[in-house]
Amino acid sequence: MKITAVETILITIPFDSGAPTQLIAGRPRTTLDILFVRVDTDAGITGWGEAFGHSVTRGTQATLDSLIAPMLLGRDATAPAALNAELQQKLHIFGRNGPAMYGLSGIDIALWDIAGKAAGLPLYRLLGGTPRSVLPAYASLLRYTDPAVVARNARAAVERGYRAVKLHEIDVPQVRAAREAIGPDVALMVDVNCPWTVRQATDMARQFAPYDLTWLEEPVWPPEDHEGLARVRRDGGVRIAAGENAHGLHDFKHLFEAGALDIAQPSVTKIGGITEQRKILALAEAYGVTAIPHCAYFGPGMLASLHVIAAMPHDTLVERLYMDLAACPFGGLTTAVDGRLHVPQGPGLGGDPDPGVIEKYRVAA
Asked: For residue 99, how many other CB atoms are within 10 A of its CB?
């Protein structure tokens, strides 16, 4: 089965986060960008992938269109792992983290979608998973800054059935407000997105201690300071999660060897796709580190994450961004019901994107 075409499709969908409009890099964030990667084959099977992401999609799209896609035409679509290994080596000069790896991630997801469709199996079954119909999810709130808004949305998430809530706040009043709003029996996590020195991170971890965090995520700048992160884990008194910004299997190996993580968070649209993510999950198991993949998506990246998690030996939380989109490209497949997400049961990723949603929200090249 040969690859006959690779197409990138960027859509941008308005969303409601239950809060005033935020600024990202000085610009209002009112829409969510999804970069689709469509791979067609001479067998008539089409695979769909997603490449990171968010506010840098134009760079990833240009890299895919001009560099990666031409390398794929005529190649065997049935060997995602071998093609992934070859392309990682060929593309390494352009960076082991960034648009080239993000683009490769989207290609890899699409090839696994093709593999599942060709086999007539949902991807998690192809990956060796046992039948699971639902997975527990956690509500991943945006950063609101205002403690009253934090409390309102945290409480609303629990009312929607979530039994775990993650904040993206960086100070005590917001964390306190969330804990008071959700009570003592709901898990509370905090992702701070790499703001602090090791000393500052250790101090903040201790200040968060009264609020019984399930984990503190990415507290140290820069994220490459694995030894510093390990010191925060040792001295801060809270479980540490990270990995969204790691670049590949060997970066995670160093994190594990440094003793930096309680929870590993590889991101399927950034790390090299399903092929690389599976290697990292196996390595985490060997090191005794819990794996809970990062999954801030609504496109094929979300579906790929659901299948990879469903193929893991134990139930694992799924991250679900706490926002309501004007339209979902996969309909109910990315909708949490009572704090749970259904595992798609169709072949491959379990469904193709709604062409009407793509048509309405597609961004001109």
From this structure: 24
- Give the tens place of pLDDT for each residue, 17-30: 888 877 666 677 88
pTM here is 0.97
Tokens 């060796």 locate to 128
Alpha-carbon distance of 31 to 29, in angstroms, equals 6
| pLDDT tens digits for range 212-232 | 999 999 999 999 999 999 999
How far is it, in rounded angstroms, from Cα 31 to Cα 22? 11
Catalytic residues: 294
The three-class DSSP label of residue 161 is: coil
CA distance 147 to 4: 52
Residues 292-326: b if buried by 16+ CB within 10 A, e if exposed:
bbbbbbbbbbbbbbbbbbbbbeeebbbbbbbbebe
Residue pointed to by tokens 């808004």 = 149
User: Which pLDDT value is given to residue 132?
Assistant: 82
C-alpha neighbours within 13 Å on the C-beta side of residue 124: 24
CA geometry: angle at 103 spanning 101 and 108, to 5°? Answer: 90
Helix (H, G, I), strand (E, B) or coil at 115: helix
Check residue 75 and give its pLDDT: 97
Give the burial string for 181-209 (b: 16+ CB within 10 Å, else e): bbeeebbbbbbbebebebeebbebbeebe
Top pLDDT among 356 and 53 is at 356
Strand segments, DSSP code E, in the chain are: 3-16, 22-24, 27-29, 31-41, 46-51, 134-140, 164-167, 187-191, 213-217, 240-242, 263-264, 290-291, 318-321, 324-325, 340-342
Angle at 277 between CA 167 and CA 54, to 5 degrees: 50
Q: What is the pLDDT of residues 163-202, one digit of tens each?
A: 999 999 999 999 999 999 999 999 999 999 999 999 999 9
